[in-house]
TrEMBL record:
This is LacI family transcriptional regulator. It comes from Saccharibacillus alkalitolerans. It comes from the Bacteria. PANTHER family: HTH-TYPE TRANSCRIPTIONAL REPRESSOR PURR-RELATED, LACI-RELATED TRANSCRIPTIONAL REPRESSOR. InterPro entries: HTH_LacI, LacI/GalR-like_sensor, Lambda_DNA-bd_dom_sf, Peripla_BP_I. Keywords: DNA-binding, Repressor, Transcription, Transcription regulation. Residues 5-61 form the HTH lacI-type domain.
Amino acid sequence: MAKKITMQQIADQLGVSKFVVSKALSGKGGVSESTRERVIQAASQLGYFTQPRGYGQAARREPERLPSASSARQSVLVLMPNVRFQTRESLYWGRILDGVTETLEEKGFGVIIISEQRIDAVTSVLNPSGILGLIGIGQISTPLLLEVHRIGLPTVLIDHEDPLIPADSVFANNTDASMRLTNHLLGSGHSRLHFIGSSGFSRSFRDRWSGYRAALETHGIKPQDGDDPMNTLTGIDDGSFEGELRQWLLKRRKQRTMPTALVCANDSVALVALRVLESVGVRVPEEVSLTGFDNIEDAGRAQPGLTTVHVPKEAMGRRAALRLLERVQDAKAPLEKILVASDLVFRHSVTECAPAREAAGENEA
């Protein structure tokens, strides 16, 4: 049997007192944010969070079975902090939320939705015995997830995972879908592609970037600029990267090295790119093909309609809700990372690359 990891061991590794470790892990004040992060990281590395009857495991007694219809109505806490446009009105996040709430209501459970991630706002409703578990949608801070874990609340995360805190998670199959989308462009004759987005923005963006690069590598294509400069854009969440993208396109056009296709991290990025391309006199798809990801409603309304990847947003929400109920029934089951398959949607923003134009571009590069 593995030896139990204690707070004292964490303290010894960091060179701090056991009192500091206790304060940091309890979510209480009295320690700096940097110290709290160091403690959480050390505890995770030592296996403190995952050990049997470890941190938070005894704080809450898990139900052995779901409540029957005759039992008192229980609720699930759904956390969708209002950051990065993660709102109910979002064409992406709102559909995921719909899938979560509809499924839980069909199963007879109440839903409490919290749209901020102040720890005190969330902890005020974490203790009541009527809370069955938590579903987190999108980016959620580590300190808040730590507090949920400390209480022992069953948790499922959608489109997010925390490297320090174990939880079930649900994602779209971003890597494979991005690879298939890029392969479609390559099969249409495009060999001068660029990724538009920021792989550091979220786990999903990073996986989409990985799929894009994997497709290029499979075909023996190296990005012209090494690590694509348009993969480090800032202002992704509010579209303020528009000026930076415009300057880059103008420079490429002046150098006569325009790409033949742009692979965007999501539809919102692609719609901004479409606007920028039009503003500098570049026609889509005649001069540059353009793709998005997510298949939000606006992607189909664009002119031209956006070739993209359909992410089954409501299905992701439904699967997360069902996974939470499974977790409540079997708290000791192995954690799962669930990937929901996505499909390509072909519209008019992509066309075959003209051989003559491609050849001319290679001569100019």
